[in-house]
């Protein structure tokens, strides 16, 4: 049983909604997203898309974007709005500029935003988690994914303790 399925079992108060990841993106969908964006996607993120073309409620209320969301969907517009609302000084402290950041996950319930540093940045492929401030930085998408599984395990432990 996956961590998220186990969480759903113990979430008696229905704190979060639980979704399965979307079906894998076809190579043509990934290429279309890259054409729309005007650059190649990070290899680790691209590999994720080949297995799951996005995941609603990936961690609590945070949605991880698939190819459709990347190409100026309402979700991407909202994520860019959050990105644009982040204080310039905070962006500067991250050592990147806004045009070097691609939103890849967001929530409409709070200020959480995950951005992937683009190929034109000093360090491509880094994922930064913002929520009013920089929460955490991951060396790559794979590291983010594994960390989110660990955070979900922490949430599961909390739910089990409060069952």
- Uncertain parts: none
Q: What's the pLDDT, averaged over the residues?
A: 90
Largest beta sheet: strand ordering: 1-2-3-4-5-6
The count of DSSP E runs of length 2 or more, i.e. the number of strands, is: 6
Shape: globular
Can you summarize the main beta sheet?
6 strands, antiparallel
What is the count of DSSP helices, taking H or I runs of 4+ residues?
A: 7
First-last Cα distance: 18 Å
Question: What's the CATH topology name?
Answer: SMI1/KNR4-like
Helix content, binned percent: 40-55%
Q: Could you tell me the radius of gyration in angstroms?
A: 16 Å
Task: Name the CATH superfamily classification.
Answer: SMI1/KNR4-like
Identify the CATH architecture.
3-Layer(aba) Sandwich
Helical/strand content category: alpha+beta
The overall number of domains is 1
CATH first level: Alpha Beta
Query: What sequence of helices (H) and strands (E) makes up the elements?
Result: HHHEEHHHEEEEH
Q: What proportion of the residues form beta strands (DSSP E)? A: 15-25%
């Amino acid at each position: 049983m996956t961590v998220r399925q186990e969480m759903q079992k113990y979430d008696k108060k229905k704190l979060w909604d639980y979704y399965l990841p979307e079906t894998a993106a076809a190579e043509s969908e990934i290429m279309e997203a890259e054409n729309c964006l005007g650059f190649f996607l990070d290899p680790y993120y691209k590999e994720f898309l080949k297995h799951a073309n996005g995941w609603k409620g990936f961690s609590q209320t945070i949605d991880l974007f698939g190819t459709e969301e990347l190409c100026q969907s309402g979700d991407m517009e909202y994520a860019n709005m959050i990105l644009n609302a982040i204080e310039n000084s905070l962006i500067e402290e991250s050592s990147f500029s806004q045009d070097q950041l691609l939103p890849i996950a967001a929530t409409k319930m709070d200020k959480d935003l995950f951005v992937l540093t683009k190929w034109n940045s000093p360090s491509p492929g880094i994922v930064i988690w913002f929520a009013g401030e920089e929460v955490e930085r991951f060396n790559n998408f794979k590291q983010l994914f594994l960390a989110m599984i660990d955070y979900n395990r922490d949430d599961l432990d909390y739910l089990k303790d409060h069952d």
